[in-house]
Amino acid sequence: MDAFMGRSQTTKGIWIAKCAGLEPCTLVMDLEGTDGRERGEDDTAFEKQSALFALAVSDIVLINMWCHDIGREQAANKPLLKTVFQVMMRLFSPRKTTLMFVIRDKTRTPLEHLEPVLREDIQKIWDSVPKPEAQMETSLSEFFNVEVVALSSYEGKEELFKEQVANLRQRFFHSIAPGGIAGDRRGAVPASGFSFSAQHIWKVIKENKDLDLPAHKVMVATVRCEEIASEKYTSFTSNENWHSLEEAVKSGPVAGFGKKLNSILYTSLSEYDAEATYFDEGVRSAKRKHLEEKLLQLVQPAYQSMLGHLRIETLENFKEAFDKALKGDEGFSVAARKCIETYMASFDAGYAGIESF
């Protein structure tokens, strides 16, 4: 906003961007102001939709609050807070979102005097919000971590304001580490599933349906784990080592067949595990089992070929040894028993070498 051009709306809708130079990878979302004149006082639908969306996808929600509004009954952000708390009740379970109140244009009143008043106002709003019967006794702290920070006036103390903003930014480094600003977040969606998750959440919100986040989490996990499993299956079918092994076993026994095949299978399943590790455990395990079954079904013909080669080779060796034994001094039954024991053991040893998983 250019102050010399007058006052007007600076954010329209919802904007998302990746923070530059911030670890871990952090996305920042800027929401349209809730008390702007552009939409008019009667158009609160988007306000509620965007508030619910922010709460559903964010680990930290920053709320700008003018310092002079603290302690006022009709403060500009009180309707927003009520909306935030009301829509949070529609989420199936607490997510432990961090609500950070950024006090703007701080006066000479010390923060330690401002913060208790603000926290008291927040608690009053929470207590006044209608709650489902199952959450009547739920405390504010079960849903939110409340943080309060203060910034000086940009116009009156520009350098101090910039310094304070830089200090605030530092708090977002390693934000999800234990003790970090979002260190105790719950139900985070893995980055690879974020785009799909956010699209689905917005669709549900626009259709004015209740948002069941645990069910949504399972749905996202189902879609993504299926995609990952499909990618790993396709990758296996085009693997050159697998093709070479498959062709070689058609013409005869392959030394180290089982070890080679297990190595290729293990690589595919390990890659699946690595990419699916942060999704719902039940879904992840079920999709992994299905992938393993599909891969074993795919390699079954090669496995059967190798088993056939082993059977033929063992039988030929048995016949040769049995013929020699019969030409010697041993009787038929003794020779048969010894040869059968020897070559059944040989077959079992060979089978152990080709067995996969």
Automatic annotation (TrEMBL):
Domain of life: Eukaryota
PROSITE patterns registered for this protein in UniProt: G_GB1_RHD3
Domain GB1/RHD3-type G, chain residue ranges per copy: 1-185
UniProt-recorded name of the protein: Root hair defective 3
Family stated for the protein in its record: Belongs to the TRAFAC class dynamin-like GTPase superfamily. GB1/RHD3 GTPase family.
One GO cellular component, as annotated: endoplasmic reticulum
Matching InterPro entries: G_GB1_RHD3_dom, P-loop_NTPase, RHD3/Sey1, Sey1/RHD3-like_3HB
Protein source organism: Gossypium arboreum (Tree cotton)
Entry GO MF terms: GTP binding; GTPase activity
Gene3D superfamilies: P-loop containing nucleotide triphosphate hydrolases
Any Gene Ontology biological process: endoplasmic reticulum membrane fusion
UniProt keyword terms in alphabetical order: Coiled coil, Endoplasmic reticulum, GTP-binding, Hydrolase, Membrane, Nucleotide-binding, Transmembrane, Transmembrane helix
